[in-house]
Amino acid sequence: MKRLNILRRLLRSRSGVAMTEFALGAPFLMLAGIYGVEEANFVLVNMKINQIAAHIADNASRVGDTSQLQYRKVYESDINDVLVGAQVQAGQSINLFKYGRVIISSLEAVNQPGISNQLIHWQRCRGAETVSSSYGNEGTLVSGMGPAGKEVTAEPNDGVIFVEVRYTYQPLITGVLISNRQIRSIAAFNVRDSRDLSGGLYQRDTAKPDPVQSCNVYTGEIVIGTDGTMA
After folding, report:
1. Residues with Cβ within 8 Å of residue 8, at least 6 apart in sequence
2. Helices 76-90 and 19-62: crossing angle, nearest 10°?
3. Confidence of residue 35 (pLDDT cuts 50, 70, 90)
4. Which of 153, 157, 187, 221 is 20 to 30 Å from the Cα of 107, by its Cα?
């Protein structure tokens, strides 16, 4: 009789734990949570890449020697310093040069009668991502740099530093929920001072030249040796 009463109470009971409902709904809740975290992180990384592109263009437009007696020369070491600064700004969490690529171009006007094009005088790159400039390579005559209809151009006897950053987003949990993991950003700044536009980039010491960040080399993270040299 005691067991029968217990069974009757169980049959009449309307309390309990919604295990079935929870088991059915939990995967969807977890999926929504993962998607929200990934999407938020993707937006933050995108914003950081945009800021890095702007800072590189701004810094590269300011570098050069400080002589007031001649046009400012820009050296390979100056561009190297700009790239080292970009790596520090990006931080280890992004690892900019391992998963991306930075392309710095000096856009200058062609001062020849009858030629209205622009010249990409010099170009330096860093990063393991195997991509090239979307707007032209070093030594190329172009109508400008940038999206069609919104090209940036340089004024005569002046220069524009144009920066492209390409980066493959690295997911926190899974990349399945992010349909397009490629982040692209561009930025441009006019050269701040009267710059020597005749010779491109110079070496401070030709006997001990600084590394040249050639665009046909795809190298990742910058490493500074104990002797201060860059690799």
Report:
1. none
2. 160
3. confident
4. 221
DSSP string, 8-23: HHHHH------HHHHH
DSSP letter, residue 221:
S
Residue ranges making up the domain that contains 165: 19-202
Longest dimension (CA), the chain: 111
- Compute the distance between CA of residue 69 and CA of residue 187 in angstroms, rounded to an integer: 30
Structure tokens at 123: 């170009």
| Residue 46 located in a structural domain | yes
Q: How far apart are CA 58 and CA 192, in angstroms?
A: 9
Tokens matching residue 120: 């990409």
Give 16's DSSP letter.
-
**173 in any annotated domain:** yes
Partnered with residue 126 across adjacent β-strands are 102
Residue 213 lies in a domain: no
CA–CA dist 175, 64 (Å, integer): 42
Nearest to 197 by CA among 106, 90, 63, 88: 106
DSSP, collapsed to helix, strand or coil, labels residue 59 as helix
How many structural domains is the chain composed of? Answer: 1
Count of C-beta atoms within a 10 Å radius of residue 156: 8
Global pTM reads: 0.85
The reply to whether 14 falls in a domain is: no
pLDDT at 228: 66
